[in-house]
Design brief:
The complex is a heterodimer of chains A (about 110) and B (about 120). With about 110 residues, chain A is an all-beta fold. Chain A is built from no helices and 12 strands. Classes of the chains: A mainly beta (about 110), B mainly beta (about 120). Chains A and B meet through strand 6 and strand 11 of A and strand 5 and strand 10 of B.
């Protein structure tokens, strides 16, 4: 079965600093990897995905993610974090019909 | 979020009640999903419908009963629920192109359910 792991429950950064949210994956075959963000009392919003092609994927709101096959990682990054980026972030991998999600990482960006 | 809507946004029900959650997608997709998000647990897939046929029932108790009358609407009928069923129920949709289910799933805002 496909799975992802998010090793950090929480990430705290100062506004304007780089933000990284980590994700590692375990798959058989080609990985289809996704990042979603969830704001309080809201559903999940799609940020970006990796299916094939360039290892650096650019997404919404200035986020990008780097697919690293040798390290089986798909870390989410933003060069300069904003206070409004404070939210819950989920990494996910497609496993036939379903998305298998990580446990989530809470990001807090302080002003 | 306007692409996938869910009603009601909040629901409180007793264990003997019967209620239904509604999901509607305005994206022209042909696959719809129900997920359950509980505190301190990863999101769990409950049901998948593709072209209005159920293709996945992820060992969900029979007190949850899905219905997909057409490709735009998805219901989750609830009866004799337990307090541990309290959670955020999320609906999602995607376009199944028959290419290995690579397509992005788009989520609604969820229904926050409390079972007393």
């Amino acid at each position: 079965a496909q799975s992802v792991a998010q090793p950090e429950d929480q990430v705290n950064v100062a506004e304007g600093n780089p933000l990284t949210v980590k994700c590692t994956y375990s798959v058989s075959g080609n990985p289809y990897l996704f990042w979603y963000v969830q704001y309080p009392n809201r559903g999940l919003q799609f940020l970006l995905k990796y299916i094939t092609g360039d290892n650096l994927v650019k997404g919404s709101y200035g986020f990008e993610a780097e697919f690293n096959k040798s390290q089986t990682s798909f870390h989410l990054k933003k060069p300069s974090a904003l206070v409004s980026d404070s939210a819950l972030y989920f990494c996910a991998v497609r496993d036939v019909y379903k998305l298998s999600f990580g446990a989530g990482t809470t990001v807090t960006v302080r002003a | 979020e306007t692409g996938v809507t869910q009603t009601p946004r909040h629901l409180v029900m007793g264990m003997t009640n019967k209620k239904s959650l509604k999901c509607e997608q305005h994206l022209g997709h042909n696959a719809m999903y129900w997920y359950k998000q509980s505190a301190k647990k990863p999101l769990e897939l409950m049901f998948v419908y593709s072209l209005e046929e159920r293709v996945e029932n992820n060992s969900v108790p029979s007190r949850f009963s899905p219905e997909c009358p057409n490709s735009s609407h998805l219901f989750l009928h609830l009866h004799t629920l337990q307090p541990e069923d309290s959670a955020l129920y999320l609906c999602a949709s995607s376009q199944d192109r028959g290419t290995g289910w690579q397509e992005t799933q788009y989520f609604g805002p969820g229904t926050r359910l409390l079972v007393l």
